[in-house]
């Protein structure tokens, strides 16, 4: 969600390569899962559909950020590297 991470919550995999990815650690919270279950019931199943289409939202709604060592859910985000095209004509 935000870009403020403590040490150990965020890591970079394959740094500088084409397939570079960011890793974020999250730990499931029981009270958040319960609230999402209640939201699923009261929304008549719309909330699980939204979470199906946006898996990161499902993680953000059910989990709290933590260190990668404590995480039971790891969110991967690919980074977009800008490619400079210096074609001469």
Automatic annotation (TrEMBL):
The chain crosses the membrane at residues 35-53. It is found in: Membrane. The keyword Translocase applies. This is Cation-transporting ATPase. Its main location: membrane. Residues 17-80 form the P5B-type ATPase N-terminal domain. It comes from the Eukaryota. The lineage of its organism: Eukaryota, Metazoa, Chordata, Craniata, Vertebrata. Belongs to the cation transport ATPase (P-type) (TC 3.A.3) family. Type V subfamily. It holds the Pfam family P5-ATPase. It catalyses: ATP + H2O = ADP + phosphate + H(+). One of its GO terms (molecular function) is metal ion binding. The keyword Oxidoreductase does not apply. InterPro entries: P5A-ATPase_N (IPR047819). It is a multi-pass membrane protein. Keywords: ATP-binding, Magnesium, Membrane, Metal-binding, Nucleotide-binding, Translocase, Transmembrane, Transmembrane helix. Its EC number is 7.2.2.-. It comes from Lynx canadensis (Canada lynx). GO terms for cellular component: membrane.
């Amino acid at each position: 969600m935000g870009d403020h991470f403590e040490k150990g919550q965020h890591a970079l995999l394959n740094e500088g390569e084409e397939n570079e990815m960011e890793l974020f650690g999250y730990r499931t919270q029981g009270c958040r899962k319960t609230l999402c279950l209640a939201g699923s019931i009261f929304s008549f199943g719309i909330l699980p559909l939204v979470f199906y289409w946006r898996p990161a939202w499902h993680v953000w709604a059910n989990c709290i950020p933590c260190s990668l060592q404590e995480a039971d859910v790891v969110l991967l985000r690919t980074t977009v590297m800008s490619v400079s095209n210096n074609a001469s004509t």
